[in-house]
Known about the structure:
This protein is α+β, with helices and mostly antiparallel strands. It contains 10 helices and 34 strands. The strands form 5 sheets. The chain has a 6-stranded mixed β-barrel. A 6-stranded mixed β-barrel has the order 25-26-32-27-31-30. A 6-stranded antiparallel β-sheet has the order 7-18-17-33-34-23, with helices on one face.
Amino acid sequence: MRTRPIKLLSILAILTCLSGSAFGQLIPRKTNTPEYREFTSANGKVIKALLIDKTDDTLTLKLPNGKSATLSYDKLSEADQEYVKKWDKEKELFLGQCKTLTIRELLEIRGYESFKFTIKGNHIFVDGELNGNKSQFMIDTGAHSTILHIESAKAKGCKVGPLDQVINGIGGDAPAANTEVPEIRLGQAFIKDQVLLSADLFKDIPGARKDHDAILGAEFMTRMRAVISYKEGRIFFRPDLLNEEGEAKAVEVPEYRFFKTKDRKTYKGKVAKKNATSVELKIEGNNKPLVLPVSRLTDDDAKYVSAWSPEREIFLRQCGGLAVQDILELRKYQSFEYKRRGNHIFVDGELNKKETRFMIDTGAGSSVLHVDWAKECGCQVGPMDQTVYGIGGKAPAAITQVPSLKMGRALFENRRLLSIDLFKQLGGNREYGAIFGADFMRETDAVITYREKKIFLQPDA
């Protein structure tokens, strides 16, 4: 019997109700609120202003009261002088137009296919297919590998071997089976002819809904060059950005995007022309145009067609060279370059002002601390009279009062989390101090990009 440590596959259910936040709205299309920057004068005085113009010797600032002031560079601190020298008026105007560009618009114009996800108990679910059968998948960045629910694997035509494998979860060991999987597909993104593990994903979980067929783990996210946006409620894939050797390819702005219909058909094309009721698409690799009633498109694609114009198409293509980071930093997001160990991703932060490494885990409905580290950091840890459930069964947990948890400027104060022994089933090796779960990611409108290897948080969300 072989043991395969999947590390923390997910915390599928937690009996204690913890804090959450309402699901965000799409980014507004227009904003009339100017964003003033803090400039420091040579004598240390700080003022808020907009830089609106410059010459070789002077700069012009617009003040919040509407007045303008022109001054020489040497009136500013050295740091602000460098900022002004690098500032480009045309670029600033262009970026100002890009400010309301959604992640979806940016990525779809770059050839990504997007999927709207649903959230249940902070978990992310997307619809796809397992061997041509409609299925639902949970997105779990904390799962090292994709794993199938064994009943679904059998029902949907996968060849399931004997239960002679073992996986480790927070609740202990669980039997698993090598499983031949002909295909897992989400739109145009798919994996074929893989041998994955199957297990009972819902074993011993009280009232388990058995509402998904598999956990799509971090190796799937990496292969598909995934981007996850909590604010927009979407996950994006572009698997062709990985070549046969597994190396990242340069991003190109393709000529076509994906259009989806309400009857689950997908077309890769571009708008040639439209009228009030229909749209003519030029389809990739096909000289014959396709005319579709706008009412047949999904609501999101119908809105895209409604907003489309040749001028907007040109603008979007000009934005195609921007990275996700460029767009999000315009919106005051903070970026963190994550570290990878295996397929897991980690970001450094603080727990009660002590440096702490966090594992980023969309599959964890709530953030969780390692009990020993929580105590060392001065958190008030209660008795181990709570229970968490995951693969391998249940594990004891303790309600823990957390004075502060910080990642960059994102600060979470006076929170009530659970502490468990995260490493009992992994030989006791402490690799990180806590799991940064979906509750905090929703609260900060997180974006995770596997191509750019970054996570973005909006502290003021």
